[in-house]
Amino acid sequence: MQYKMPFNYLINPGHSACAGCGEILAMRHVLQIAGRNTIIANATGCSEVTTSRFPMSSFKVPWIHANFENAQAVASGISAALRQKGMEDQVNVIAWGGDGATFDIGLGLISGSWERQENILYVCFDNEAYMNTGIQASGATPEGANTTTTPPGKKSTGDDNLKKDMPAIALAHHCVYVATATVGNIIDLQEKVKKALSMKGPKYLQILVTCVPGWYTDSKDTIKVARLAQQTGIYPIIEYVNGELTGAAKCPRPKPPIEEYLKLQGRYKHLFKSDEGKKVVAALQRIAEENVRKYGL
Ligand SMILES: Cc1ncc(C[n+]2csc(CCOP(=O)(O)OP(=O)(O)O)c2C)c(N)n1
Ligand SMILES: [Mg+2]
Q1: Among the atoms of ligand 1, which is closest to the Cα of residue 138?
Q2: For position 6, what pLDDT does the model report?
Q3: Which of 91, 103, 166, 233 could form a disulfide with 139 if both were Cys (CB 3.0 to 4.6 A apart)?
Q4: What spacing in Å lies between the alpha carbon of 155 and ligand 2's midpoint?
């Protein structure tokens, strides 16, 4: 039986994402801007398993399951087929996936496609860990975060690796458009999707998406936490067109201290309980200050 839905989203409700999931919110807005003439190749992760449980799908556009590592390679094939049919300018090709799929597992195939300068928008939903499989640390996990593979304890303050600078990796591949956004500013996110899709060539958009169970946040704080990531300077919101910095979201004055961001998230709770932990808080504050200096925030 078909129900008549009272809304017109290209991702229907009825998916199984958590209440307060930042990722599903970002996906919905990317797709609303991209519109119906879009084909999506989706890397395995929460974005996929919450929306496409057989035999159902939340998507109202052509959507293809890819493996964890090869969404961009699937998109390469779609893009080549469209070129062959002379339809390249009529259809948006988007590959998307989580930070694990992007920063780590799929990076080789993303790199090859970028090298070939293919006309694809790659969107990374960055929730800073492998959430779908139970909160394992990825290359996007920030220093100090508690994940199931970086648990804090007597000799550990959580993850002790620095977050990879993925936008810099995209820039090194001469992507025509490279930007970051958060679910804390949907208008900015939408404008970036619009701009990216107006350009021909490889595009990279990285969206910070709050994860309620993985960050141990309250569902009601999803937007607030994402905004604080930008406002504290820890997650710089930047935009590059043809390699030139064209946008950088300014921090408010006075800038909120990093503690305001960290204290809303259980994944950083242990940092406030030991001297070693407080050193990590200070290190994160220094990273935020360095971002402010580097991008003029
Ligand atoms: C080659 C391979 N390794 C591991 C997995 C198991 N796996 C599926 S999704 C996933 C985690 C996804 O993390 P991320 O890309 O960050 O997306 P999120 O779920 O956090 O949105 C893992 C480890 C897999 N499907 N294929
Ligand atoms: Mg993830």
Answers
A1: 16
A2: 63
A3: 103
A4: 26
Ligand 2 centroid from CA 6, angstroms: 31
Specify the residue with its C-alpha closest to ligand 1, atom 9.
Answer: 45
pLDDT digits (tens, 9 = 90+) for 128-166: 999 999 999 999 999 999 999 999 999 999 999 999 999
In this predicted structure, what is the pLDDT of residue 98? 98
User: Ligand 1: which atom is nearest the Cα of residue 131?
Assistant: 20
My answer on whether omega of the bond before 6 falls inside 30° of 0, hence cis, is: no
Which residue reads 């309620």 in tokens?
212
* Domains of the chain by residue range: 22-295
73 close to 56: Cβ distance less than 8 angstroms: no
Q: What atom of ligand 1 comes closest to residue 99's alpha carbon?
A: 16
HEC sequence for the chain: CCCCCCCCCCECCCCCCCCCCHHHHHHHHHHHHHCCCEEEEECCCHHHHCCCCCCCCCECCCEEECCCCCHHHHHHHHHHHHHHCCCCCCCEEEEEEEHHHHHHHCHHHHHHHHHCCCCCEEEEEECCCECCCCCECCCCCCCCCCECCECCECCECCCCCCCCCHHHHHHHCCCCEEEEEECCCHHHHHHHHHHHHCCCCCEEEEEECCCHHHHCCCHHHHHHHHHHHHHCCCCCCEEEECCEEEEECCCCCCCCCHHHHHCCCHHHHHHHCCHHHHHHHHHHHHHHHHHHHHHCC
pLDDT tens digits, residue range 21-39?
Answer: 999 999 999 999 999 999 9
CATH 3.40.50.970 fits 22-295, yes or no: yes
Q: How far is the CA of 129 from the centre of ligand 1 (A)?
A: 9
